[in-house]
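Lab notebook: predicted structure, single chain.

Context: the supervisor wants predicted structures on file for every construct in the current expression panel, including those that have not yet been purified. This is the next one on the list. No modifications to the sequence; it matches the entry in the shared construct table.
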Amino acid sequence: MTGSVTAILLAGARPIPDPLAAAAGVAVKPLVPVGGEPMINRPARALLDHPAIGQVVILTQRPDLLAADSATGWLAAHPRVRFETGGQGIASSLLALLEAGDLPFPILLTTADHVLLDRAMLDQFVDEATGADIAVAMVERETLLARYPGSRRTWLKFRDGWWSGANIFWFGSDKARSVIALWQEVEQDRKKGWKILAAFGPFALLGALLRILTLRGGIARIGRKFGLTARLVAMASPEACIDADKPEDVTLIETILQRG
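Prediction complete. Output recorded below exactly as produced.
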């Protein structure tokens, strides 16, 4: 799969000032310094350095700010990087890019605040997601707390554990469009797990509430509902679900980076 995966790096700017950006005195969150450089640089390099990744599409409302900044200007000059101007929603922006017809599958999507993204995470995710129409990376709570007992995440409980998102997604074929369209409908409620589950039908919602579904089984069942193969990738690296979302996250990430 050398160079065959299209990577999308989400570098959105909120319509309201981001607290991390405001505290750091920068215009948008992807420019917030983490470990001595804008947070977007590390996941961008991880993607560009991985042999499976071909082009990297940076989706942002403010490509001008990233291109003009001396620390991130290299992205605008890189031959395998292109900027696309996103709208207010991730899913609607993705659908627009797909409609344009120049975004080849498979697609790996991740975020500019995934500062700890590295080769090992990408190796596992690409290997396990390949062949699926949709895949999502998650970290089970015990995996995280075994190494970072003080880390606080948002967890969803299922029969096979408590799970938190790792901000890495896979769209393996054009069949993924139907799920992206549904994502567009519930995007404003993406932090509210039960509303997302409800969108997939009453059985999925009831199953989660009664804890009778495993997450793996639930994702596979949702895939079948849409006529596609959907897969959970349970990440081995606890760092996969640590993103730079709050000041305490940045502190933890910088500690991890200092340890190498």
